[in-house]
């Protein structure tokens, strides 16, 4: 059983997940004036990139967030024999509402199985767990594991630390209820893409700092790790303006932090790239496209993990923009990317406590 990501392709294009998320409407025209803006994009990805760049959307503003969020049309859950998604309510952080999750893959097994805490993307400001239900069903079936897909609160309505604490509360719940769920608590991985990757890194740091059971692996797919990207640090001009823009990044981080992105001071623990200590974290996989807005911050974070003694795999996909693997899943570069992070996850799950 495989997830047909063509539905996700249509969903991403419908959302306008490229320059639509905050990039100026004239960006394509300006880039075209300087030559082909996509000359470095992998040939198999180019048609999708052109389609995404060709869309025109209003600027990203707080007033426009309801319309943006409503544009996320979720692919339908996979039918049987895919593991069904059960909606549960998990006790939230102290003084906060309960957290809704999708619990996928719980069934009778001869032995405890591994589990994944999955955190969806959306720039800290949009997206829902249900957008990734089919993806999580596919992963649960492929790895014969339990997946907990978290519907955390979004910013700016809920600023840091609320979204992080929501996800950490679910991780703690998964550990506490491992026996009931048939999960091996020593084999719980944290997986997230884009903003979900940034939140996954924050959850992993919280687990380290608060003690107790730690994730066995963090899988960070083109993670959003540094508020300074797109604000005080401008992206290289050759990066393909597809998938997530500098303007959108500054907006998303500002909404999450409650202070302007790139500020001299931000809340402690809110920006993984600014964390002073990366030692003691679990084995890590970081994957990103070479033309992604996040490529520099992701490589730098990976370098710092390695310097801190954390077993770390870095995978850079040439010619690839943000979320390329969802947009064009059948491209060779997408298949190689997916195989790489899945191999890291299999290695983590194969380890015996």
Write the topology of this structure.
Blueprint: H1 6-15, H2 27-33, H3 43-53, H4 65-70, E1 85-90, E2 99-104, E3 113-119, H5 133-143, E4 146-151, H6 162-176, H7 178-181, E5 183-193, H8 195-210, E6 217-221, H9 246-257, E7 284-289, H10 295-307, E8 312-317, H11 324-327, H12 332-350
Parallel strand pairs: 3-4, 3-5, 5-6, 6-7, 7-8
Antiparallel strand pairs: 1-2, 2-4
Helix pairs in contact: 6-8
Provide a compact summary of the structure.
The chain is globular. Helix 6 packs across helix 8.
Give a description of the structure.
- It is a single chain.
- With 353 residues, this protein is of the alpha/beta class.
- Helix content is 36%, strand content 15%.
- It has helices at residues 6-15, 27-33, 43-53, 65-70, 133-143, 162-176, 178-181, 195-210, 246-257, 295-307, 324-327, 332-350; strands at residues 85-90, 99-104, 113-119, 146-151, 183-193, 217-221, 284-289, 312-317.
- An eight-stranded mixed sheet has the order 1-2-4-3-5-6-7-8, sandwiched between helices.
- Helix 6 packs across helix 8 (195-210).
- The two termini are 29 Å apart.
- Mean pLDDT is 90; it is low at 1-33.
Strand order in the largest sheet: 1-2-4-3-5-6-7-8
**Radius of gyration, CA atoms, in whole angstroms:** 19 Å
Largest sheet: 8 strands, mixed
What is the number of helices? 12
Q: Helix share of residues?
A: 25-40%
N→C terminal distance: 29 Å
Number of strands: 8
The SSE order reads HHHHEEEHEHHEHEHEHEHH
Query: Which regions have little confidence, pLDDT < 50, spanning 5+ residues?
Result: 1-33
């Amino acid at each position: 059983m495989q997830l047909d990501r063509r539905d996700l392709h249509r969903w991403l294009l419908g959302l306008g997940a490229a320059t639509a998320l905050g990039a100026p409407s004239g960006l394509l025209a300006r880039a075209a004036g300087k030559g082909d803006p996509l000359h470095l994009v992998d040939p198999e990805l180019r048609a999708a990139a052109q389609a995404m760049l060709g869309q025109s959307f209003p600027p990203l503003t707080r007033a426009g967030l309801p319309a943006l969020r409503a544009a996320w049309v979720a692919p339908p859950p996979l039918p049987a024999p895919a593991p069904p998604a059960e909606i549960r309510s998990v006790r939230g952080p102290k003084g906060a509402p309960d957290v809704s999750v999708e619990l996928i893959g719980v069934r009778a097994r001869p032995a405890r199985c591994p589990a994944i805490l999955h955190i969806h993307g959306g720039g800290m400001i949009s997206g829902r767990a249900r957008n990734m239900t089919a993806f999580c069903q596919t992963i649960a079936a492929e790895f014969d594991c339990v997946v907990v897909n978290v519907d955390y609160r979004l910013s700016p309505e809920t600023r840091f630390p609320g979204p992080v604490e929501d996800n950490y509360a679910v991780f703690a719940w998964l550990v506490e209820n491992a026996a009931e769920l048939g999960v091996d608590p020593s084999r719980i991985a944290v997986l997230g893409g884009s903003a979900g990757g940034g939140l996954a890194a924050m959850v992993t740091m919280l687990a380290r700092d608060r003690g107790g059971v730690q994730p066995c692996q963090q899988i960070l797919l083109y993670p959003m790790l540094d508020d300074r990207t797109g604000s005080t640090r401008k992206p290289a001009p050759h990066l393909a303006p597809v998938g997530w823009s500098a303007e959108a990044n500054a907006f998303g981080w500002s909404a999450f932090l409650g202070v302007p992105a790139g500020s001299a001071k931000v809340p402690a623990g809110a920006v993984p790239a600014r964390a002073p200590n990366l030692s003691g974290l679990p084995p890590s996989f970081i994957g990103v496209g070479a033309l992604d807005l996040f490529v520099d911050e992701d490589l730098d974070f990976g370098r710092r993990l390695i310097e801190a003694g954390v077993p770390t795999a870095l995978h850079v996909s040439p010619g690839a923009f943000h979320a390329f693997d969802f947009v064009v899943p059948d491209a060779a570069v997408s298949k190689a990317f997916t195989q790489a992070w899945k191999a890291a996850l299999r290695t983590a799950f194969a380890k015996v406590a």
